[in-house]
Amino acid sequence: MIQTIKKKKSFQQIYKSGRRYFSKNLLAIYANYEDINYETKENKEKDILQKGILEKAYSIIVSKKISNKAVERNKIKRRIKEIIKLNVDEFPERKIILFFPKLSTVNMKFSELQNEIFHIYREITKK
Fold it and tell me: Residue 58 in contact with residue 88, Cβ under 8 Å?
């Protein structure tokens, strides 16, 4: 099962300790669960207790720089969520991924976006 990341603290930890992969239309920041840097051992234990040990997790962050219209930002989020949902088996194991779409994703076709995400999955699993 894939879960979404919602807490600001979790975002910050992944953003700090995660690796980056730049594709043409997306930026992916990813980390293994084991690689996330916690400030203290206490914080790590607290975080694991709050969310449990998850196998897969993701989040999609669409900035207002992409579009001032919430309709367009939400469309991008819906498309990426649907691609992830339909292809749960393809999602890399024991990874947390933050997706940051670029401006060009607004006009992309669904199939092109899907190919781009699959490409990111393949690159992430190699590393």
Answer: no
DSSP 72-91: HHHHHHHHHHHHHHHTGGGS
Nearest 5°: the CA angle 21, 27, 29 is 60
Length of the chain: 127
User: Could you tell me which of 113, 107, 51, 121 has the C-alpha nearest to residue 82?
Assistant: 113
* Three-state DSSP class for residue 102: coil
Query: What does the pLDDT look like over 20-55, one tens digit per residue?
Result: 999 999 999 998 877 665 555 555 545 553 555 567
pTM: 0.84
Q: Which domains does the chain have, with CATH numbers?
A: 2-126 (3.30.230.10)
Number of other CB atoms surrounding residue 58 within 10 Å: 19
